[in-house]
Amino acid sequence: MSTYETMSFHLETERLILRPWAESDAAEFRALLSERGNGTPTVEYTRTSIAKLLTATATTGIALLPIQRRDEGDFIGYCGLIIGRSTVEEPEIAYELFQRVHGRGYATEAASAVLDAAIATGRKRLWSTVGAWNTPSFRVLEKLGFERDHVSTDDSGEVVWLTRSLP
Q1: 107 close to 114: Cβ distance less than 8 angstroms
Q2: Which of 3, 43, 148, 155 sits 20 to 30 Å CA-CA off 72?
Q3: pTM here?
Q4: Could you report the per-residue pLDDT of 70-126, keeping only the tens digit for each?
Q5: Residues β-bridged to residue 82
Q6: Phi and psi torsions of 41, nearest 5°
Q7: Three-state secondary-structure class, residue 25
Q8: Strand ranges across the sheet with 75-82
Q9: Are 5 and 120 in contact (CB under 8 A)?
Q10: Contact, 113 vs 77, CB < 8 A?
Q11: Where are the alpha helices (DSSP H) in the chain?
């Protein structure tokens, strides 16, 4: 059993609401995943992915949460904590937003709320792994105080590992 508090699964910022996944998120989540350029996942794959995210949340006490804009009420992406390439003690912060909303500060705003939620769990450090090509993600993480730790490679190319100590 974890020695950490459970992460808050409802986060709100000035412009955003981060909340647990719902089955109704499947179509938008599928559209977001298709923006990666690897084809469009099946509806079944997307529903299974959401079920796996919910199971992981119940098991780990951390969550990847859908992001909705407060005024518009639309799904624009996700942000949260995952085990990913790391551990439940030192999870990764992860985010992905529709291209149509890039450049408006939403990723930084959502990730800042998730960072505060991670601090509230009692964790001491977070990681992030970013493709070496992803300059916008580096800008978001640098604004949040992450620093480069090391570089590895995987099937997609170079992966930069960043870390941030938590108070």
Answers
A1: no
A2: 43
A3: 0.94
A4: 999 999 999 999 999 999 999 999 999 999 999 999 999 999 999 999 999 999 999
A5: 92
A6: -65, 155
A7: helix
A8: 11-12, 16-18, 64-69, 75-82, 92-97, 125-131, 157-165, 147-154
A9: yes
A10: no
A11: 26-34, 43-60, 106-120, 135-143
Residue 69: both structure tokens together: 């804009």
Q: Is 81 helix (H, G, I), strand (E, B) or coil?
A: strand
Give the whole-angstrom CA distance, residue 57 versus residue 69: 22
Helix axes 26-34, 43-60, angle to 10 degrees: 100
Q: How many CB atoms lie within 10 A of CB 60?
A: 18
- HSE-up of 147 (CA within 13 Å, CB side)? 5
Cα–Cα dist 28/18, whole Å: 15
Mean pLDDT of 8-34: 96
